[in-house]
Amino acid sequence: MLWSSAMDGEAAGSQKPLARLFAYMRLAPGAYVLGGILTLLYALFFQLIPLSIRRIVAAFENAPDVVGRAILGLVAASVCLALARLFSRIVMFNIGRQIEFRIRNDYFAHLQSLPQSFYLAHRTGDLMSRAVNDINSIRMFLGMGLLNLLQTPVLFAGAMIVLLPVDATLTLWALGPFPLFVLITRHYSRYMFQANLAGQEQLGKVSTVVQENASGALVVKAYDLSDLERDRFEEQNQELFRRMMKVGVMQTTMFASVGLVPALSAAVVLWLGGQRVQTGLLGTEDLWLFWGLIGMLTFPTMMLGFVVSITQRGLAALERLGSVLDIVPSIRDREDVAAVSEIKGRVEFRNLTFTYPGSYVPALKGVDLTVEAGSTVGIVGPVGSGKTTLVSLVPRLLEIDDGAILIDGVDLNRMPVHLLRSSIAMVPQDSFLFSIPVAENIRYGVPDAHISEVRRAAARAQVEREIEEFEDGFDTVVGERGVTLSGGQRQRVALARAMILRPSILILDDSLSSVDHGNEEAILGDLEGRRRGRTCFIVAHRISAVRHADQIVVLENGRITERGTHRELVELGGFYARLHHRQELLSELEVGDRDAALPEPAAGVPAPAAAGQQRLPLGEPS
Amino acid sequence: MSEERSEAAQLGRERDLGKVYDTELIKRLWPFMRPYRGWIGLNFALIPPRAVLELMPALVVGAALNYLTEGVTTTEVGWMAPFVVPRLGLGPLAWMFGLVFAISIVTLIMDWLRAFTMISLGQRTVRDVRRTLFDHVQRLPMRFFDRYPVGRLVTRLTNDLEHLAEMFSAGVIAMVADVFVMVVILTMLFAIDPRLALAALALVPVLGIAAAIFRYKVREAYREVRVKIARLNAHLQETISGMKVVQLFARERRNFEDFRRENASHRDSWLRSIRYDALLFSTVDLATNLTRALIFWYGAEMMGLGGITLGTIYVFSDYMSRFFRPLMDLSAKYSVMQSSMASAERVFQLLDEPREPEGREAATTGETKAVAEPDGCEVEFDGVTFAYGAETVLRDVSFRVRPGERVAIVGHTGSGKTTTLKLLARLYELQEGSIRVDGRDIRDIPKPELRRRMAFVLQDVFLFDGDLRYNIVLGRDVADEVVDEAARATHVDDLIERLPNGWAHKVSERGVNFSTGQRQLLSFARALAREPQLLLLDEATSSVDTETEALIQDALRHLMEGKTSIVVAHRLSTIKDVDRIYVFHHGAICEHGTHDELLDRRGVYWRLYQLQYAQQETAA
After folding, report:
1. Which of A186, A294, A467, B233 is the most exposed place for a label (fewest CB within 10 A)?
2. What number is the average pLDDT over the span B558-581?
3. Average model confidence (pLDDT) across chain A
4. pLDDT at site A147
């Protein structure tokens, strides 16, 4: 349900949740056979305990000399039961964990294969909740759920087999309530899950208020809204309290009342059974047998009702997870994949039009552009004009829907994905770094690179000295779990990550925006020197980054509106010329180096179409 | 997304935690529980009768067994007398059935009451902590919000507090009750037959040692599991956030191998904990059954000598299984307590964050000068210096705005313009110099009073979840005429007319359904409805279509009318309208004067003008 309808079209070959489950279970048939045998053994020994107690009691009354042997029987049965219980629990629960392990692996691997358009349509939080909550529900069902579903009926049948021959009427009186008991717990737990859901929903509302309050802290303070906000929060807080109380009371009532059934059964056995003992139909030892089995069946029966709900939830979770797992990755090697072993780097865009899923306005309209192998193209244009989209299509992060891109004359869609991506080094706009050591971040694309190569790449990205100043140097963990880097440092590490590669195509998507002027010059100079034989795409806001390019294109509203060399475009007197003029003025103001980059929409996010012209950062004419 | 990542990272640090019971934390929690000590009292009061009651049915059954085997009725019945001597004209068996039935009902009621009191206590306490925590968070300074991710705050107020509630429903008090039952059982056993009691307890030391070992192992395993699942989820989250990089650098296979390894290690920790858990369960089970055998064996020995009955043996075997039972869910309770304590600690850490400073001691609620100064108030910056952390944003800024004057602040991005407004609203505490409003240092004016006099229009318009009217009045009691007037002056009325529900139109998800221009107009109306003496306006930089632009300019004129206005200006029309312009450069005022004066000077303003405003002129 949470999955947008946009995904429906991609879903194919969807599996029913049970079929999916069986597919996983088939991976380890041995464990299930073993689990089944252990369960049967457990059920057998389970009955032996009250049976041997009956023997002891009978011996007490009739044959004191065999008491010792009877007690030894109980000891043996106890040991066997304990062992059967130990191993059946371990085996069954392990199965659950093994399947959880596989499902999580599959989920992870699958996510890695999905295109960026999927990530634009799904929030990280949603995908995480799949991984955390749904996998949890599935595992609960597979562990406790499956164990009980298998075991309890067997235990119950065993008890019937043992008790019916002893006294059929009393058996019905004593065990009759148990199935009812299952129905009651099931009924209860269904309501409980509903109440629980209502509680979780309210918890969501509470988080929304907190989130809103914290994000709007400035307004809350400036407009002195604290009291008002407190009341608003308190309303939700009270409602949460009420709902949580409801869950609690239901749970309480259920647990308290389920204890009543076995107690009544035992009392009935006392009364009716007692009468039968008095009339000589039964011996006291038979009463022990009844009590013993009633006592032992109580807990598993109680769980069974619970387990029914757990099963339902588990299957629903499996279905939700399945809706992601069933999406066929659109970006993968096709059957008609071209036999290419090397990419030289000639890139040709042919009448390329691209629309983001869910958007009506194309982000790129009829783009025609040829970039010769080894040449450099500069791309400029206002925010939201399609620059990022254009360069993101080259490494096939997005699926082309109209028009084509040819690389060395081969249709991009026929290029082997792995070859394509390992021939391209791209520095995306947001310079995302992982929470791992700096060195690991830099050699992300070539994990086996020697530290000297890492250092060289860092030096070329003008970040080596700063990294060395960190406490652990190149071993310093960056990101949330370690050192927080400044925007410029992050960008330069991301640059180093691309520079360590030897790609045929290098794409810099506004990758120098937070880098100060001096470093920018050094980096550009370095690239200049090494760019021979390498195709370069440079998306930039600053003229300085593109002025030496072989050709420069201006993108406006998804179309190429100007193209030529720096000199040609300045003479043309269009967007580029205005941009150039402004930046000349800006450098006169000598403040350029102090400026932090203005925030831009996250990479790849289509600009809202309705807003018309976007924010107007300095350095860009309208 | 980074917030979520840091949350996961935070979880990763949990390996340092793991206390099961922390007196310090309970002490801090106590003030929240105190109002509900009645519930605690009731719960504790119920523990002894409930414990005694739990042991009654076995006595009745034991008595019944004796009655059935030996026909014991009156004399030598000892402890079982009350159960065997029939009353109410019932036969002995019917009487005993009635007894068990009645005991079960009473037990049910008591169980219900006990659980209910605990849940009430837990939920009420947590509700109160939540209320206090929210109020506390609201009083934290802006600096706090600048560095503390919103996602983490949400977790503190939701998940962490839910964990805390679990402590009540499945925590300490339940353990106390368990221990009490064990004590009562021991007492009863020794009262009934000390020799048999000693025999029955023979396995307790062995089981005790085994349980202690398993408990330790299980606890370790659970802790490991928690750390590993946190790491695993952090890895997953980071991969999702950085999926583009993963795919660009063709790292999928390697990344999957890493994930698989972590996932396997997580699974293995679970397998370990399953093993210990199963061992604990089976051991308790085995001990129970072996103890039964022991009781039968010793009972048989004694029976030969007389003085022990089958009923007594039944009672002993029933009691011993109850005696061992609490050991079974000990490990589950342990892990609940562990996570509750960790959550409580995080919650209290947040409660320890220092609040926003209030007015200085001299602060008085003195009458506002609203009446005395109908045209607005006087504002004076005197040598103000301010830094966010290490970065100095304002250096020795001084200026004065007389009542009713309109002043613009212009300058390059990062030159300290917006900060000036924020300092005036006392959203941050300044480090040097002072700011005076009507001659009083703002630190001497209680914040609510200071802020009531001003309206601050922020660059990013923040709309709340609620209807349009709510977003204009922001919960204050504002007369309809005032709201209507504000809407008319800012052209919001046109907008409202076009909406099907008018004023009652729901603003969803922070106003995504309104355009930038509409949002600006709404924020103007919000400011006007406040009837401020001082207007602080941080003009939005985003450009809008010409029609809306005209509306905004007109609304602005109304907005600034009759009040002191300080505007961080981006619009040419605004700067041309004001009485004076202050040009900020690198956090200091470098020029000031009227538009024409400054243009004549051909200084920073002139160049800024070329850069930022000249085009607007040609466009206009």
Report:
1. A186
2. 85
3. 82
4. 80
Determine, for residues A222 and B292 on separate chains, whether the beta-carbon distance falls below 8 Å: no
For residue B487, the one-letter residue type is A
Q: Which residues does chain A have within 8 Å of residue B454's beta carbon, measured at their own beta carbons?
A: 222
Domain boundaries, chain A: 1-166+310-329, 167-281, 347-429+504-611
Rounded Cα–Cα distance for residues A589 and B411 (Å): 11
Tokens coding B238? 């980071």
B102 CB contacts (<8 Å, ≥6 apart)?
none
Query: How far apart, in whole angstroms, are the C-alpha atoms of residue A145 and residue A136?
Result: 12
Domains B21-192+339-355 and B379-619 share a fold: no
What is the rounded average pLDDT of the residues A265-288? 87
Domain B379-619 part of CATH 1.10.10.10: no
What is the average per-residue pLDDT within A112-121? 85
Instruction: Please tell me whether the interface predicted TM-score (ipTM) of this complex is above 0.85.
Output: no
**Residue B10: exposed, middle, or buried by beta-carbon count in 10 A (0-12, 13-18, 19+)?**
middle
Least confident of B180-184, B335-339, B614-618: B614-618
> A621 pLDDT exceeds 50?
no
pLDDT at A344 over 70: yes
Average pLDDT, integer, range B416-435: 89
A420-430: pLDDT as tens digits: 888 899 998 87
Residue B39 has pLDDT above 60, yes or no: yes
Of how many residues is chain B composed?
Answer: 620
CATH of B21-192+339-355, one of 3.65.10.10, 3.40.50.920, 3.30.470.20, 1.20.1560.10: 1.20.1560.10
Which chain B residues touch A216 with a CB distance below 8 Å?
A: 462, 464
SS (H, E, C) A161-179: HHHCCCCHHHHHHHHCHHH
Say whether B604 and A596 touch across the interface (CB within 8 A).
no
Instruction: Inspect the interface and report whether the beta carbons of B64 and A274 lie closer than 8 Å.
Output: yes
Per the rule left: phi > 0, alpha: psi between -120 and 50, beta: everything else, B280 is: alpha
Confidence band of A320 (pLDDT split at 50, 70, 90): confident
pLDDT score of A242: 94
The position carrying tokens 């108030």 is B377
**Cα–Cα distance between A159 and A153 in angstroms, integer?**
10
Q: Which of B259, B285, B289 is opposite residue A108, by nearest beta carbon? A: B259
Rounded average pLDDT over A597-601: 35
Tell whether B147 is within 8 A of chain A (Cβ).
no
Amino acid at B211: A
Which candidate from B61, B69, B256 shows the least CB-CB separation from A108?
B256
- pLDDT level of residue B86 (50, 70, 90 thresholds): low
Interface A-B: count of C-beta contacts within 8 A: 398
What are the residue boundaries of the structural domains of chain B, listed by start? 21-192+339-355, 194-307, 379-619
Q: Given this structure, which CATH class describes domain A347-429+504-611? A: alpha beta
Contact B236 A256 (CB under 8 A): no
Q: Say yes or no: B245 contacts chain A, CB-CB below 8 A.
A: yes
Tell me which chain A residues have a C-beta less than 8 angstroms from the C-beta of B526: 223
Asked if A284 lies within 8 A of B264 by C-beta distance, the reply is no
Q: How confident is the model at residue B321 (pLDDT cuts 50, 70, 90)?
A: confident
* Cβ-based contacts of B69 with chain A (< 8 Å): 61, 284
Would you mind telling me the total number of residues written for chain A in this entry? 622
- Look at residue A259 in the predicted model and tell me its pLDDT: 74
At residue A3, the pLDDT reads 31
Residues A237, B281: C-beta atoms closer than 8 Å:
no
B47 touches chain A (CB under 8 A): no
pLDDT at A82 over 90: yes
Q: Residue B591: which residues within 8 A CB-CB, separation 6 or more?
A: B582, B583, B598, B601, B603, B604, B605
Please give the CATH superfamily to which domain A1-166+310-329 belongs.
ABC transporter type 1, transmembrane domain (1.20.1560.10)
Q: Is B388 on the interface with A (CB under 8 A)?
A: no
